[in-house]
Write a structure and sequence with these properties.
With about 450 residues, the chain is of the alpha/beta class. Helices cover about 30% and strands about 10% of the residues.
């Protein structure tokens, strides 16, 4: 049986999308349109990928931080990004490890992509404890976090990873030749075909940083991070460019005071002794200059960004101040709030892009858009040959041939979303509302 016959046996002949299917909509968020004042989706629906790949390319790479034992998770991620994007665009991969990659890892990875692949080691100038910190004090801080059951707080390697992604990855020798990067984690999934080059679109739109999920951090992991970020902003006399407000708690609404003259007057001697009268208001220990961190951050396990921003004098000074505070050891500061607060201090909403058309999942958090009406194109089958069983290979491709329904305000291209969890856009803990507020508000009810 020839290839064409085998494809027709397993795949439907039409790429058309259903207009409605209640069983496939479990947990899905119906998209509302966001203002395009500062940002807009680069492509609503599908573009002709054959034409897109003929255009100009960016100087960019995927960056994957992994260890040999994470090979299965790396394979999952590679299969997903290759199926939905890189089988067409062939951007290179840079794999980094604080140890040595073994031959099994290297050979297996190369088998899952036709794109160039490089493997690098992170030396002790970028990973581990810096010389200026007391190692025993830092280790004791990490042990205390473990005793307090702070998520990942007791894992020494997790602290090293967060610090590396906060202030060093962009200076690794293998990345110095690149201008853009796309972070790829083990065990992630993409759900929509990406039929344009996001690096090129970011450059054309003069964007600096792109995200697909914004959520709230666990408060116990970063109790003092905002103090230092705010102190950097004050030290350098920086005014907000409009993004800083995304990361601030809204002040509580004051209760309206009774109209003067209409309230019953009390004797003067009682007013003088009334509890709370003429007292100094309580000071919020977490507030700085009247501002308080709302815990929002761009979830950095996915990000597409300009590397020259991270390498800038301003970002380096920001990281240096945060690093010297000791928060990467005495607390469990992640790279996500570091990147986000740095963006809040240094960037404007127009510098940021929300990849709302990307379907993406990491652990139990997912964003996946509805498909754009009248903007879907026939799908090119892709038989992933590393799946050795022929039937399984065709069944896998057939799964992706059956896309989700199109919906009004949908922006996705041939998306098929997981339905076992609620989309983060409609989930408690999402920071979409905070992003929308600084981005210009909602454009549809």
């Amino acid at each position: 049986m020839g290839l064409t016959q085998r494809i027709s046996k397993w795949l439907p002949s039409s790429p058309s999308l259903p207009v409605d299917d209640v069983s496939r909509e479990k947990g899905r968020n119906i998209s509302r349109k966001i203002s395009e004042k500062h940002d807009k989706v680069f492509a609503s629906g599908c573009l002709q990928v054959e034409k897109e790949v003929e255009g100009k390319r960016a100087n960019a790479a995927f960056v994957v931080l992994a260890r040999n034992k994470e090979l299965d998770g790396v394979i999952q991620s590679l299969k997903s990004i290759e199926r939905h994007f890189n089988r067409w665009f062939h951007y290179p991969y840079v794999f980094l490890n604080d140890g040595d990659f073994d031959d099994t890892f290297k050979d297996t990875v190369k088998n899952y992509t036709s794109a160039p692949v490089e493997f690098g080691k992170i030396d002790d100038t970028m990973w581990g404890y810096p010389k200026w910190v007391d190692h025993e004090v830092a280790k004791e801080g990490i042990r205390k976090q473990g005793d307090a059951a702070i998520m990942y707080g007791g894992m020494e390697s997790y602290h090293h990873m967060c610090r590396f992604y906060s202030g060093f990855f962009y200076k690794h020798p293998l990345l110095m030749k690149y201008e853009w990067y796309w972070r790829l984690e083990p065990e992630i999934s993409y759900f929509c075909d990406i039929t344009y080059d996001p690096f090129v679109k970011m450059a054309e739109a003069n964007k600096t940083y792109g995200f697909t999920i914004a959520v709230k951090e666990l408060r116990e992991t970063v109790p003092n991070i905002f103090r230092y970020a705010s102190a950097y902003k004050r030290k350098h006399n920086l005014e907000s460019k409009g993004l800083w407000e995304m990361f601030l708690e809204r002040p509580p609404e004051e209760e309206p005071k009774p109209e003067e003259g209409k309230q019953d007057k009390l004797p003067e001697e009682i007013l003088q002794n009334e509890p709370g009268e003429n007292t100094v208001p309580d000071v919020d220990p977490e507030a700085m200059e009247g501002e308080k961190y709302n815990m929002c951050h761009f979830w950095s396990n996915f990000e597409i960004a300009r590397l020259d921003w991270f390498r800038s004098k301003e970002y380096e000074e920001f990281f240096e101040m945060m690093d010297r505070s000791g928060g990467f050891w005495m607390e469990r500061w992640g790279d996500a709030p570091i990147h986000s607060l740095a963006a809040g201090v240094l960037l404007s909403p127009s510098d940021i892009h929300y990849f709302r058309d990307f379907g993406y999942r990491h652990t139990t958090i997912q964003h996946c858009p509805a498909n754009a009406p009248a903007r879907q194109l026939p799908r090119i089958p892709w038989l992933e040959m590393t799946t050795e069983d022929e039937k399984a290979r065709f069944e896998e491709d057939e799964y992706w041939a059956n896309a989700d329904p199109v919906k009004e305000n949908g922006v996705g291209c041939r998306c098929r979303c997981d339905t076992d969890i609620v989309d983060v856009e409609g989930k408690q803990g999402s920071c979409l509302a905070e992003w929308v507020e600084v981005a210009g508000g909602w454009a549809s009810p």
